[in-house]
Design brief:
Strand content: 15-25%
Strand order of the largest sheet: 3-2-1-4-7-6-8-5
């Protein structure tokens, strides 16, 4: 039997600059049978125009990455779902990697990540992220989380919170199975790190994660994050 179809769900907001390269990178996956679903959160640039020209399925949803990803997951009908940030690029043969990872007892997983950019610390941050994820079983959105549709529905989708939705989703999915931690790498942009300062971003993210672990609400942390970034 053929593996379930993979739907690649991408939440977007004003990503016209990223979209042509992103969609071009996904063309081989579409040839291999994957479906690409863009979920727009109210873009004011040419995002929707570019998406329409590329004949992608494009939906609109209330702004917020979790809400947009849930809308894409609920509207699509593929048996496997992969949630991709607009500034992340999948490796070749991602469809096969996901199908193999989900063919056994594990119902979700993520890729290793490398960070693109010029700062020399980026090449050390990515391996640290991958190791931390492998030890904790917690994935981040930068690592292109994927799962079966059954797992997505069993946990009720991503929690409708403005920050840490990937961490909370990982916690919920871990109740179903450990993650498949793939060695194949996605490439994610290091622009956030370089724009805000590498050390400053590291300190900020660790502080936010620690406070979330201590029980501070995602709404409070999101307001702080918007204020300092």
């Amino acid at each position: 039997m053929s593996p379930p179809r993979l739907d690649v769900i991408i939440p977007v907001l004003d990503e016209a600059d990223q979209l042509p390269e992103l969609l071009a990178s996904l063309a081989p996956l579409r040839v291999a049978g994957a479906e690409v679903v863009l979920v727009d959160g109210g873009s004011r640039d040419a995002t929707l125009t570019i998406a329409g020209e590329q004949a992608c399925q494009c939906l609109s949803a209330p702004r917020g990455r979790a809400r947009q990803m849930n809308a894409g997951g609920e509207a699509s009908d593929g048996g496997h779902l992969l949630f991709l940030h607009a500034d992340t690029r999948l490796p070749a043969h991602a469809v096969n990697f996901v199908a193999k990872a989900l063919a056994g007892e594990r119902c979700w997983g993520r890729f290793d990540v490398r960070l693109s950019g010029h700062h020399p610390l980026l090449s050390m941050i990515a391996p640290a992220m991958n190791l931390r994820s492998r030890l904790t079983g917690i994935a981040t959105g930068d690592q292109a989380m994927f799962m079966t549709r059954e797992a997505f529905e069993a946990v009720g989708g991503f929690p409708a919170q403005p920050l840490m939705e990937d961490i909370e989703m990982s916690r919920r999915l871990k109740r179903l199975s450990p993650p498949a931690c793939l060695r194949a790498k996605v490439t994610s942009s290091g622009r956030r790190w370089e724009r805000n300062g590498v050390w400053r971003t590291i300190r900020l993210m660790w502080r936010l994660r620690y406070r979330y672990w201590r029980g501070v609400s995602a709404d409070i942390l999101a307001r702080e994050y918007r204020h300092v970034r």
